[in-house]
Design a protein that fits this description.
The complex is a heterodimer of chains A (325) and B (337).
Chain A (H helix, E strand, L loop, with lengths): L6 E7 L6 H12 L6 E7 L6 H11 L3 E6 L5 H11 L4 E4 L11 H9 L4 E6 L6 H19 L11 E4 H4 L12 H5 L6 E6 L16 H17 L3 H30 L5 H31 L3 H8 L9 H5 L1
Parallel strand pairs in A: 1-2, 1-4, 2-3, 5-7
Antiparallel strand pairs in A: 4-6, 5-6
Helix pairs in contact in A: 5-8, 9-10
Chain B lengths: L9 E7 L6 H12 L6 E7 L4 H12 L5 E5 L6 H11 L4 E4 L23 E6 L6 H18 L11 E4 H7 L9 H7 L4 E6 L13 H20 L3 H29 L9 H28 L9 E5 L22
Parallel strand pairs in B: 1-2, 1-4, 2-3, 5-7
Antiparallel strand pairs in B: 4-6, 5-6
Classes of the chains: A alpha/beta (325), B alpha/beta (337).
């Protein structure tokens, strides 16, 4: 048997028939000198061109290549998640299949992981993309993500990232989370480092995203906030959300009642009614929070499962008898 | 789960619901139709609720020596999807064919369903040429047009009960409720390849009369189900949040307008019912948003049991020279769980 790989380089491909060969060569050139056993996990996300055939061809000549084949196109998050699932290394590196990332950066990522970080993210500090359609939206999005999640990363969109396998394999990744992996990983209290990476302009094929719609990012952010900060205490979260309604309801109702008392007029229906509506809604929101508690309780998910992933144990050095084993 | 008979290659499941024909005729017609396939097969009639008449006919067939007949009788009507799953539990074949319990398609065409399974995972029947008046055709066209818009799949006859599929498909889909009608859509979503096969319509499959509003409501709900399942099962806040935010936004606009009126034109708020409307909108929007968040919480807490993707194969070749240079890649098939 060959030695199990220490490092897995995960690359999702979708219609990248021209890139896959050069990328494989570049990864091998960058990683082989490091003298660590490694593997490459190529995920074919249901490509319609010759990507899969070329990947299998590479696998035939290079036993370090592992090809995961999808039945159809599932999108980048799924491809990443599959790559993470089928990778067997202790350190996982993900990168784009379009040659925009440079495998030569991998060494620096590994150094950070060795230094004790759980997640290392790339920062394309000299980004080779269009300013208006790509760079500016991305700056705004990154700023927002940092504000909302508390994980200030300059470049969430960079695919070149490194993870400690034991951590990332236990973080739920689904839907379109690939843009928020560091934020999602923060539920486990991961130690995150940033590394400047080289970024090349696209050589082959066409870019797969355009200007992403703002509302999606905003909604996703709301989800991330809810999940990372409040999944285990939904009642608190919904209570938070209900607070403005409660205040509005009470003050509007108070206003209606006091004016009618002071001036001896009949209470105004629209004003009092609005107050009642706000109050009711606040009440239902709090009940929703209670419902959330029920959902979480029944799901069996617990925070210590995540805490365990990144914890460090301080203890006296192991006794002599354990060393003898 | 019962022991599977290894000799059986093909299992035919016939759910007997509200509408059914003479079981003896049906049985012989389908059997004749399957003859050319030359596959060892079995027929599983699932009686969805008590059907004494069909039961009698089938028992008589068994008494007469029908070897390939299994009757599964459910205590009450559970619906077609559940009947299919109950049949699947009894089925031994690697190929599953579901057939309607009445003369919907020409029995001779049943075998046509099997041909596409060489390359596809699911083949669904499409009655063509099809009888029916202009109104009926329009109704079908609108329904399937809407499904196509939502799913991007051009299907022609979701109402046809004749389908063939690999066993794995039905096992993974695990249908419930009214999902049998959407089998093709759900299978496609799960990554299975779906083919449509033209089958001749049976002469006896004539529906005269008018559809009641209830049937239309069913169709609309079907489209809505597809819409939700296809687009939003993994990201519910996109759905609830979109509706919620637009409602809330509308409400806020109305409130702003009212405040503007109050400040500039001194129009008293106290006698403006629009205030009620706007606060209702705001509140309703927030509630929907909260529902979306709850749905997200449910997805998140169950995400360990869900997977977005399905890998068909893992290809990796062994170290050259160590093992024989087999062309066969190591294949692992990932299942849903």
């Amino acid at each position: 048997m060959r030695t199990p790989p220490k490092l897995s380089v995960i690359v999702p491909f979708y219609n990248e028939q021209d890139s896959i060969g050069p990328l494989h060569a570049a990864i091998v050139a960058a990683v082989a000198p490091l003298q660590i056993p490694f593997e490459m996990v190529f995920v074919d996300d249901g490509s319609k061109d010759a990507t899969l055939a070329r990947a299998v061809e590479l696998a035939r000549t290079d036993p370090r290549v592992r090809v995961v084949k999808f039945r159809r196109n599932y999108g980048q998050t799924a491809a990443m998640a599959a790559g993470i699932e089928y990778a067997r290394g202790e350190v996982l590196i993900t990168m784009d299949g379009d040659l925009q990332n440079d495998p030569a950066d991998i060494e620096e990522f590994l150094r950070k992981i060795d230094a004790g970080y759980d997640v290392v993210v790339g920062w394309r500090h000299q980004r080779q993309d269009k300013l208006v359609s790509r760079k500016i939206p991305s700056i705004i999005a990154n700023w927002l993500i940092g504000k909302v999640t508390g994980i200030a990363i300059k470049d969430n969109g960079c695919s070149l990232k490194a993870y400690r396998a034991s951590v990332i394999k236990n973080i739920p990744l689904y839907s379109e989370m690939h843009r928020f992996i560091p934020a999602m990983a923060s539920i486990a209290g991961t130690r995150i480092a940033e590394v400047k990476v080289r970024h090349h302009a696209r050589q082959f094929g066409a870019s797969k995203y355009g200007l992403s719609r703002i509302y999606k990012v905003l909604l996703d952010l709301m989800v991330i906030k809810t999940l990372t900060s409040f999944a285990a205490r939904p009642l608190l979260w919904f209570g938070f959300l209900a607070m403005p309604l409660l205040i509005a309801g009470l003050s509007v109702l108070g206003y209606a009642v006091t004016t009618s008392l002071l001036h001896g007029e009949a209470t105004s229906l629209p004003i009092a009614g609005s107050g009642v509506i706000f109050l009711t809604s606040a009440f239902i929101l709090i009940c929703s929070g209670a419902f959330g508690e029920l959902v979480y309780h029944l799901s069996g998910m617990r925070e210590h499962q995540f805490a365990r992933l990144t914890q460090r144990i301080g203890k006296r050095p192991a006794a002599i008898e354990t060393q003898a084993q | 789960m019962t022991e599977r008979d290894p000799r059986i290659k093909l299992s035919v499941i016939i759910p007997v619901g509200k509408r059914y024909a003479n079981a003896r005729e049906l049985y012989s017609e389908y059997q004749l139709g399957l003859e050319p396939a030359r596959l060892a097969h079995e027929f599983i009639f699932v009686l969805d609720g008590p059907h004494p008449q069909v039961m009698g006919e089938l028992e008589q067939l068994i008494d007469e020596g029908a070897q390939d007949l299994i009757i599964v009788s459910l205590s009450r009507p559970f619906g077609e999807s559940t009947a299919l799953m109950a049949g699947l539990e009894r089925a031994s074949g690697e190929l599953i064919v579901t057939l309607p319990a009445y003369h919907q398609i020409d029995g001779r065409d049943v075998v046509k369903l099997l041909a596409p399974l060489e390359s596809a995972d699911v083949a669904i029947g499409w009655r063509w040429p099809r009888s029916g008046g202009a109104l009926e055709r329009m109704r079908r066209a609108i329904f399937h047009g809407m499904v196509a818009r939502v799913t991007g799949m051009r299907l022609h006859d979701l109402g046809c009960g004749a389908r063939a599929m690999k066993r794995r498909v039905l096992e993974e889909l695990s249908l419930y409720g009214d999902q049998h009608r959407l089998l093709a859509v759900l299978a496609d979503r799960q990554g299975f390849r779906v083919a449509e096969v033209e089958l001749r319509q049976s002469e006896r499959d004539r529906f005269e009369g008018v559809y009641r509003p209830r049937e239309y409501a069913h169709l609309v709900l079907d489209v809505f189900t597809v819409f939700f399942l296809v687009r939003f099962t993994k990201k519910p806040l996109r759905f609830f949040g979109m509706i919620g935010a637009s409602m809330c936004g509308l409400g806020v606009l109305v409130v702003l307008y009212l405040i503007f009126d109050r400040l500039v034109f001194n129009q008293s708020l106290a006698d403006r019912p629009a205030l009620l409307l706007s606060s209702l909108l705001v509140v309703l929007g927030l509630q929907l948003f909260a529902l979306g968040l709850l749905a997200e919480l449910i997805i998140f807490t169950h995400s360990r049991h869900m997977k977005d993707y399905q890998a068909t194969e893992i290809v990796q070749y062994p170290e050259a020279g160590l093992q024989q240079a087999s062309r066969e890649p190591r294949v692992g098939t990932a299942t849903l769980r």
